[in-house]
Automatic annotation (TrEMBL):
Protein name, UniProt field: Uncharacterized protein
Superkingdom of origin: Bacteria
Region annotation (Disordered) ranges: 1-34
Length: 91
């Protein structure tokens, strides 16, 4: 089976993993469910970024965060925005 040319992206480790694994049945499905529960527990226990940080952001970043639904989503979006901006800067 020819999968096409190999690229750096195709050789990269897939950190997210398969979304299909949560629908598997049997022992493998149980392990995936336990892993998901542990990830959810960790997510609940990790603190959100302080509101004071968001008060001090430049206006263009504040505008990008206007449509978030909760603090966790706000944190993730801000970190993603900073990551993308850093890729545009020289050096």
């Amino acid at each position: 089976m020819n999968k096409g040319p190999e690229t750096p992206a195709s050789r990269a480790h897939k950190a997210q993993g398969s979304l299909r694994r949560y629908s598997d049945s049997g022992e493998e499905g149980e392990e995936a469910e336990i892993e998901k529960l542990e990830a959810d527990k960790l997510r609940r226990n990790v603190p959100c970024l302080p509101d004071e940080l968001f008060d001090r952001l430049p206006d263009f970043l504040k505008r990008g965060l206007t449509h978030v639904r909760n603090k966790r989503e706000r944190d993730i979006l801000l970190l993603s925005m900073i990551t993308n901006i850093s890729g545009c800067l020289p050096g």
